[in-house]
Amino acid sequence: MIPAAARPSLAAKARLRFDRASGGYMLLYPERGLALNPTAASILRLCNGELTVEAIVERLQGEYSERPAPEMRQDVLEFLEEMVRRGLLQVPA
Amino acid sequence: MSPAPRPYTLVAELTYACPLHCVYCSNPIDFARHRDLLDTATWRRVLRQAERLGVVQVNFTGGEPLLRPDLEALVEEARALDLYTNLITSGLPLERARLERLRRLGLDNVQVSIQDARPAESDRIAGREAFQRKLEVARWVKELGFPLTVNTVLHRENLDRTGEVIALAEELRADRLELANTQYLGWAFLNRQALLPTREQIERARSVAAAARKRLEGRMEVVFVVPDYYVEFPPACMDGWGRRFLVVSPDGLLLPCLLAHTVPGLSFGNVREQSVEELWTSSPGLLAFRGEDWMPEPCRGCTRRSIDFGGCRCQAFHLTGNAAATDPACSLSPDRALIEVARAEAVPPPGRLVEFRYRSARPPAAG
Questions:
Q1: Residues of chain A positioned with their CB less than 8 A from the CB of B111
Q2: In 3-state terms, what secondary structure has residue B270?
Q3: Residue ranges of the alpha helices (H) in chain B?
Q4: CA distance to A29, B81, B181, per residue, from B85 (Å)
Q5: Which residue of B103, B109, B151 is the best one to mutate when testing the A interface, meaning the one whose CB has the most A CBs within 10 A?
Q6: Which of B33, B54, B302, B363 could disulfide-link to B6, CB 3.0 to 4.6 Å?
Q7: C-beta separation of B192 from B212 below 8 A
Q8: Cα separation of B366 and B30, whole Å?
Q9: CA–CA gap between residue B323 and residue B327 (Å, rounded)
Q10: Nearest to residue A45, comparing CAs of A18, A22, A72, A67?
Q11: Are the Cβ atoms of A17 and B218 closer than 8 angstroms?
């Protein structure tokens, strides 16, 4: 579990890039890239090492108000954990 | 004809020259013939045109890309285009100040090849003293804040030390470790008998790598690439011919893979004469094996044809003489015996060292 007070940031090897062809964002890292859906892109763009997990959750809940808040929280936390598992996000201890 | 797919990665082979003589080098055996190098302005144009076509990553490779004094200019151009830039290097010849300069210019990732976890064994494969220098370079990479990829090519002589290679990569704080089994093309094909491991070696190394992948999850990505000779179905070579990867050779040929120009009868245009887009969409060599129309049986009727794209065209040619044949690495190939014979001859590393044919500008006579 990522603590709510942690301030996640992209791993050194990962970089976000706007993709003209699709109009979305891609997360690029060595030999690979992920095409991000709009929610994933919104989350990662907030992972700047300054905002806490809690703050990111709140921003997303505000931005996607049509989705029930508890479910949005769950979505964000699961996504962040998956990114940490893949080594694409770092969470300073 | 369906529209050409979008390429995502440009493999920019800046030169075939290299200070090392690795016995499994993926450059063509007659690399020394290709000495008319593209100039800086042309490479800049290739980067711009590739990006316009959809490319998001560029791998600067070779040979040894550090031998080009304009590497800095090309990294700068690539970053101005917001491309993810990867330097794929042997680590020689590199000074720390140059690496610092590349860092300032925005180079994203550095991949250093290390041939083995032990100095003498590593240098034996490289054909010169290089191991200590590589470790020093890998340490600079991390000290300067770059992400580090360590690439080790695996074969009969070092597979049993896979655990040591992983430990070395951990010690170097690598972000990614590529344990890439030798693919038997080019120089590796010449040295196949000396390099091809046994199935037991592969299986042991694979389980060592799997355990490490789990243990290091989130810290170091561990990639283990099985050699084609020990699979039931071939991997999707280059993700399919002319599909996601766009390779430009040091002398300007636009290729679907590193060795496509060694297949006789295929004609690839040159970026000196035509744009990247023109060549990608309509060069005869790219059209030859793009999509599924070229496929023979058993590929044509096989449900895996959209997964592996018929395997490797260069391997099909080098083993059967026919580039349009099903890759003999596939268990369904009528030529599978060619692989099985080679496998049956594979033995564990002998007590004494065998002789290699080292990569050199004077290619050995065919044998």
A1: 30
A2: strand
A3: 40-53, 71-80, 96-104, 119-126, 131-143, 162-171, 186-190, 192-195, 199-215, 276-282, 284-288, 305-308, 313-320, 337-345
A4: 9, 10, 24
A5: B109
A6: B54
A7: no
A8: 12
A9: 9
A10: A18
A11: no
The DSSP-derived string for A34-88 is EEPPHHHHHHHHH-BSSS-HHHHHHHHHHHTTTS-HHHHHHHHHHHHHHHHHTTS
Q: Which two tokens stand for residue B20?
A: 């090392």
Which residues on adjacent β-strands are paired with residue A18? Answer: A25
Q: Which residues contact B59 (CB under 8 A, 6 or more apart)?
A: B9, B10, B11, B12, B86, B88
Which of chain A's residues have a Cβ under 8 Å away from the Cβ of B217?
85, 87
Would you state the structure tokens that stand for residue A17, as one six-digit string? 């890039």
Chain A residues in contact with B109 by the CB 8 A cut-off are 13, 29-30
Q: What is the pLDDT of residue B367?
A: 43
Burial letters B312-350, b for 16+ CB under 10 A, else e: bbbbbbbbbeebbbbbbbbeebebeebbeebeeebeebe
Q: Which residues of B touch A15 (CB under 8 A)?
A: 84, 108
Q: The pTM is what?
A: 0.96
C-alpha–C-alpha distance, residues B209 and B176, integer Å: 13
The SS3 call for residue B266 is coil
Cα–Cα distance measured from residue A87 to residue B24, given in angstroms and rounded to the nearest whole number: 31
The rounded average pLDDT for each run of 10 residues, N- to C-terminus, in chain B (367 residues) is 89 97 95 93 98 98 97 98 98 97 98 98 96 98 98 97 98 98 94 94 97 97 94 95 98 97 96 98 97 96 96 96 97 96 87 84 64
CA angle B109, B63, B225 (to 5 degrees): 60
Average pLDDT of chain A is 95
* pLDDT, position B363: 66
Q: Which helix (H) or strand (E) holds B154?
A: strand B148-154
Question: Looking at this predicted complex, what is its ipTM?
Answer: 0.94
Sheet holding B109-113, edge to edge: B221-225, B176-181, B148-154, B109-113, B84-89, B57-61, B9-13, B245-248, B254-255
Whether B149 and chain A come into contact, CB under 8 Å, resolves to yes
Percent of chain B as helix, strand, coil, to the nearest 5:
40, 15, 50
At A66 the pLDDT is 94
What are the beta bridge partners of residue B165? Answer: none
Measured distance CA(B235)–CA(B269) in Å, rounded: 27
